[in-house]
Protein 1
Amino acid sequence: MKIFSKEQIYKGDQLTAEKQNISSTELMERAGTQIFNWIHQRMQGAQVPIHVFCGIGNNGGDGLVLARQLVNYGYNVHIYVVNCSEKRTKDFLINYDRIKETTKKWPIMLNCEADFPEIGPDDIIVDAVFGIGLNRPPNEWVKRLFQHFRASKAFTLAIDLPSGLYADKVPKDENGVVWADYTLSFQSPKLVFFLPDTSKYTRQWEVLDIGIDLEFLQQTETEVELIGKNEMLTIYKPREKFSHKGTYGHALLIGGSHGKMGAMILSARGTMASGAGLVTTFIPKCGYIPMQSVVPEAMVLTDADDEKLTSITFDIEPTAVGMGMGMGLDQKTQHAFQKFLKSNEVPLVIDADGINLLAKHKDDFKLIKPQTVLTPHPKELERLLGSWKDDFDKLKKAKAFSKKYKCILVVKDAHTITVFEDKLYINSTGNPGLATGGTGDVLTGIITGLIAQGYEPLTASLFAVYLHGKSADIAVEDYGYQSLTASHVIDYLGQAYLDLFAKPQVQQKQEEKSGNS
Ligand SMILES: NC(=O)C1=CN([C@@H]2O[C@H](COP(=O)(O)OP(=O)(O)OC[C@H]3O[C@@H](n4cnc5c(N)ncnc54)[C@H](OP(=O)(O)O)[C@@H]3O)[C@@H](O)[C@H]2O)[C@@H](O)CC1
Ligand SMILES: Nc1ncnc2c1ncn2[C@@H]1O[C@H](COP(=O)(O)OP(=O)(O)O)[C@@H](O)[C@H]1O
Ligand SMILES: [K+]
């Protein structure tokens, strides 16, 4: 799913109005009506007090359209105008007049803290104060209004964007933002819903279709994309009937050290489960027996050293290499790693201590070949890029790094963002059960396995991150967040593949009823 920028959203509105020959007021009517339908479907006329707080721009205008419809349907509505600026937009004013024609209970003007209404914990707040037009921090009294919302504990439904949240930067003061339970967003979700600094401002979100011009939606290239099942189905490569293990590549995993052989075992199992034809691991001698015993499907080559890697040489011809898991930072390992980077021509995934070694010897950045995949967790990313001011600064630095070295940066987090040059791909699967040792090693194994099978490095990264998260989402149903382990992510990878083709339950039930399944 495309994630449009603020500028693109304004352009989409304008183009839609022109092409469909409607006014911006009519578009606002659609937007407010969609919000109303959403609420009406769930509330069915229930007389819970609904407090609609409208700003003075078009977000406020949406709020007024909604409020008018709630009044018309007999809901228990309280309408407020948050009088935070002298200015009013045209469509706000049109809808302000319309509401005055609808009810004698005119909107209440809020100008300062003394005007704040009482809000009960079981009431509903609709936040239509600011949308994507916010361009400076709210006034102090408006910030206090947002804190008043939060203190009330009432369910808070934000329109388009929680007020006080910018579409393209991180607000400095968290008290100056509405903490929404749910956000109904127009056209596309906003990037800020997925970033660690700003995702806390909405617990859940949903996109409402307001009939924006289809051609515009299809043809506009966006910098950001949300990756879900639909995007992955188009890149999935089916298994051929007359295929054999040679068809699906030979993945080589390099890493491990005394006490960290588990990382390599998890990676190797992840690579096998991803569908690679053959897997070989290159590890220090001490890992030979554990690897052979635990992963009998994998072949094992060993370094001359017992405890660490000192010289990476092999006589196989891998189709993809994944390296760095549990590798350690010994100087001899560093030399072997550097030498390998200089000579390697095979598609490469660098993780964990591979990234740490690069970060310690920044001169080696020039050895990163185009299309190399790097999979840093937040701390490794900081070692690689230096510190950042906020999430937008982090993404800017990540894009610059990717552009400079033409590499793919898999920025791991609750919503992993894969960065390639100027593009950002946000993953939609995964859960906090993954916050446990070894899950990153599994991910590297899967990426390497997919590249070995012929997926392009970028596609392999997106697909692997998606499947890894999906596997955890299925496994968490059986194990819960606390007991989910990296091994479960491997065990459920098959379910994640199968889920790609699972029919939605409703459709399945209908087909079963009519005997079509
Ligand atoms: N397709 C769509 O997406 C559709 C979108 N629609 C809706 O339009 C919304 C965008 O509306 P918008 O452009 O009028 O901006 P909005 O967020 O209401 O802000 C209002 C104005 O407030 C001002 N202002 C800024 N910061 C301020 C501050 N701190 N304190 C005080 N004032 C401040 C600033 O004006 P300024 O004072 O700077 O001149 C700004 O222009 C969008 O989120 C969606 O809800 C639908 O109606 C139709 C379809
Ligand atoms: N709260 C979370 N929600 C979703 N995914 C998470 C969360 N925490 C961690 N993950 C995922 O788990 C993996 C952890 O990787 P990493 O920190 O490298 O683990 P390790 O080094 O122990 O293998 C990444 O893929 C990351 O995106
Ligand atoms: K809002």
Protein 2
Amino acid sequence: MGGRGSKAAVIDGKAIAADIRAEIKEEVAKLKAAHGRVPGLAVVIVGSRPDSATYVRMKRKACDEAGIRSFHEEVPETATEAEVLKIVQSFNADPDCHGILVQLPLPKHMNEEKILAAISLEKDVDGFHPLNIGKLSMKGHEPLFMPCTPKGCVVLLERSGVELRGKNAVVVGRSNIVGMPAALMLMKKDCTVTVVHSRTKDPQRIVREADVIIAAAGSAHMIKKNWVKRGAAIIDVGTNSVPDASKKTGYRLTGDVDFEECSKVAGKITPVPGGVGPMTIAMLLSNTLDSGRRAIAGK
Ligand SMILES: Nc1nc2c(c(=O)[nH]1)N[C@@H](CN(C=O)c1ccc(C(=O)N[C@@H](CCC(=O)O)C(=O)O)cc1)CN2
């Protein structure tokens, strides 16, 4: 794949996520049959951002389909930090709830770090608790949970047969949610990792050396064909809205990678939509299953 004149294989995130969700559904059913209990996930949403509301709806639907119980708490934009902390603490104490997620971003008047750190370590299915992130960065330590989007990137690569050990990986972007944890996870998989960010000199030269590219810069079509080594595997995390008059919404989602161009040189590539996005929710269910299994079956 990715030879001269050929086209990259498209990594179908939607199909891989559907397979994983079916596997999770089976595991949940086994847990129920053996112990009479299922994992439970609490979703807390603050305010009414349409994108956040959509993601939360998708998460609840995915839970329903997998047989995972979901709890929902919605508070207005004007809620105080103390109110949100109280909700988190009540789910921390609820034995039927095995995972808690606070949908991000939070309104500006709230201290995101404080709220995420209040989630019980054992229920941190988003993997954003500072101790879970800290363990990700330490050799010889494993976090209880890994953040869903970067975990989805690694699982997509593995399920598509991309060998990671000893490979040069370049992560474009250094956000707490994607870029930083993705770099740490790839290092744990024995990649040699370089992080390219807004202050990097000559990013194109560095990205061109990569066997594996994780694009998470939040900049539409930033990665062009001449940034990509022939045969590289590209995972595009970008979800940029660009105006599109042919759409009912007036916009469409597009990635950080120029798919048309880059698929002519890459070996494997994810599309947007239909690549990493669906994996985020599949990994959330997977983390919730792991947490439920630990609490219900003790393993
Ligand atoms: N607490 C969290 N907040 C946020 C996270 C997160 O992992 N935890 N990630 C993102 C949003 N997100 C989940 O919350 C998310 C983003 C995208 C998708 C997805 O399936 N995208 C589809 C397109 C969907 C569409 O058309 O709108 C795709 O890319 O194919 C799922 C979940 C920020 N907040």
